[in-house]
Write a structure and sequence with these properties.
This protein has 461 residues and is α/β, with parallel strands linked by helices. It has 19 helices and 13 strands. The strands form 3 sheets. Strands 8, 9, 10, 11, 12 and 13 form a 6-stranded parallel β-sheet that branches. A 4-stranded parallel β-sheet has the order 5-4-6-7, with helices on both faces. The protein has a 3-stranded parallel β-sheet with strand order 1-2-3.
Amino acid sequence: MNSLKSPLTKRLSKREEEHKKTERINEKKMAKLIDKQRYKCALGAMQTVQAIERTIPVLHSGPGCAQKLSDSIGSSGYFSPNIFPCTSINEKDVVFGGVKKLRSTIENSLKVIDADLYVVMTGCIPEIVGDDVEEVVSGFQNADKPVIFASTAGFKGNNYKGHEQVIDALIDQYLEPSEEKIGGLVNIWADVPYQDLFWLGNLRELEKLVQSIGLKPNTIFGYGRGIKNIDLIPKAQFNLLISPWVSLGNVKKMERKLGLPYLHYPTLPIGAFETSKFLRELGSFAGVDEAKVNSVIDENEKYYYYLIERYADMFLETRVMAKQFSVVGDSQYALGITKFLVNDLGLVPATQYLTEDVPKVHQERIKEEFKKLNYGLVADAVFETDSYKIHNSIKEHDYHGYPLIIGSYYEKELTEELFGHFLNISWPVKDKVVLDDFYVGYTGGIRLIEDIYSVANQRWN
């Protein structure tokens, strides 16, 4: 029998190979289904706007967008998301454009809503049909109150990206360089308001830490902050960014436009080890006397370790919790809590799951941070948005006992199946109501210890 392939057979084999190659390419291009994602579309950044006191989002979107996002990450407050001004564009606006409706909505918002700043935010439809929102908003330059716009179409990214877009809008359209500088004034930027349920308490505690070494903190989010704090931004000595990646582009833009240098501290400081390290680096950057910084650290560490020593036996003798743990959440908490549990409590990291769809440009740098642990330990950081894959990975890992899983409410049932210990700290949070609780700093570390071992004690007893 002739073993050589005929020309027809060769052509068929070639076509079959090309077909398989096309299938592989199409599989890569196909949209992937994500189980229980932990973020929303960019328009969800209406919560960033809402976190700035007396600031109102004006939504140029379909009528259902705001309601869906409100149900998911919304809140009430000065103005409820359920009654945010919205163009509620429809099929007619898709055909003929919605700029007239947008102009009318902005005009009426200025008339009937008492706010200090109005932020026009776009949904998907107006950007797809090409509404010139920038041109419409520019017509309100001489309005009694400032009106700016942020491009927050859902197809451009998630609400982490939307948060950055809102801050960019402030930089590009409102802030101007200032020759006046206030000595020691520091602008503080952290993670995304409301997406991080602990945002308010964390910011207030960060303010206290900055103030403790003689600097003057300035934040724009939360009670008593607002347009007056935004106006102070160009007058600061520098920007302080405490985040693995969110808003890094914002502070770089402020450096270019406003001449503001920045200190990027990638780890949320939780507990004594990281908080003391943070204060030393902050003090050095700001030119604060080293003796003063060390005095503040010494005072806080003494009380911190006094509290730890009171319960040292319980920490050492707890047999119902394995020494290994996993954090499932955005990179801010995954990194901050991992360093805290290793460096302060001596636990051992299993795989840590970073869920906010971190842009690839930041991933390698963030992975390196998970290698900066005490005792020669290294944590494996996985960037994954699909809860199905995360849960399967956790099930397959041997935690050598009852695991500690710190994550979102999505991990509760999984942890119960593994007879482990569960603490809900990342979105969605349904196990607790958070008003101004926090995990930042020395006090925040103590609170996190209380929460973890309160869960462990339930099994102990």
